[in-house]
Amino acid sequence: MTTPTTTRRTALAATAIALSAPRAWAQAPIVIKLSHVVAADTPKGKGSEFFAKRAAELTKGKVKVEVYPNSQLYKDKEEMEALQLGSVQMLAPSLSKFAPLGVKEFEIFDFPYIFDSYDDLHKITQGPVGKSLMAKLDAKGISGLAFWDNGFKSFSSNRKMAKPEDMKGLKMRIQSSKVLEAQMRALGAIPQVLAFGEVYQALQTGVVDGTENPHSNLYTQKMHEVQKFVTVSDHGYLGYAVITNKKFWDGLPADVRGQLEQALKEATDYANKIAREENEAALEHVKKSGKSQVVVLTPQERLGLKKAMLKVHKEMESRIGKEVIDAVYKETGFDPAKL
């Protein structure tokens, strides 16, 4: 039998549910999908997971970052469009990916031997030149948040490579970059653009003869198992820009955005630190595997490669912009006339 007390309790319960529903909805976490194309156990993969963890901690669960490694969501050529459309909220693409967007200045990072050390590099990525480059993404609906290192690249192939002439005629896989095309041609090699996820099979089947990678990518993708030689050339840099959909980012509550910026700062320090450690460890793993012979260049051999590729800097002036190149030279102290 229904009593006035029972009726009153039922009404109060219904009111409580009605009042709590909007609050429960408001407390649902903001989901950020972070997609990338490399393995989870690479510096970028670990940096992404670190960011996800710190984002959850600093926002006290208001944000949930879902990390999708190894091209699980999008391949190289698909992910930038997905970001602009809002299908994914964050990416960490390699710096070569921005030229197809019309921001060709990012290809400065592909210049061979423009950075002699991480100290030189960080003067750009953590300084005013890096900030000015990131600002150029705004017009594309993208906010640039941070630069992450992967490392300096080595050449690999089934031919021992120590001099420019050793590269002649080799089909070398590169990322899509006019600078990298010019770099390979300067060495007499034939550049072949391939998505990162397709490289191992292409090497295995002979579609391409070799490639260039930081050691962590080479090792985690098992490329060393289908390459007889790895030349520690440190000829170029591979790094990433952590980016987000600008509309999404600007629409976040200010406090949440600030917490995510702090999480990203910590993740950047972590990713850059382990990038060096992981590349050193990966090279040791390659040596111990016995699958590839590791070739360490003499100072004279390194200088020979450097001189052979230096003309790429001049060739790319009209594409990148002389003012950007000069700004990097000024910050790092690089002087091509002294080679």
Describe the structure in your own words.
It is a single chain. With 339 residues, the chain is an alpha/beta fold. Helices cover 47% and strands 17% of the residues. The chain contains 14 helices and 11 strands. The protein has helices at 4-26, 43-58, 76-85, 118-125, 128-135, 178-186, 199-205, 215-220, 246-250, 254-289, 299-309, 311-315, 317-320, 322-332, and strands at residues 30-35, 63-68, 90-91, 142-152, 154-157, 171-174, 190-193, 210-213, 229-232, 237-245, 293-296. Helix 2 packs antiparallel against helix 10. Residues 4-25 have low confidence and may be disordered.
Shape: globular
How far from one another are the termini? 98 Å
Major sheet characteristics: 6 strands, mixed
Mean of residue pLDDT values:
91
Strand content: 15-25%
Number of strands: 11
Rg measurement, Å:
24 Å
Order of strands across the biggest sheet? 7-6-8-5-9-11
Low-confidence stretches: 4-25
The helix tally amounts to 14
Helix content: 40-55%
What is the H-and-E element order? Answer: HEHEHEHHEEEHEHEHEEHHEHHHH
Secondary-structure content class = alpha/beta
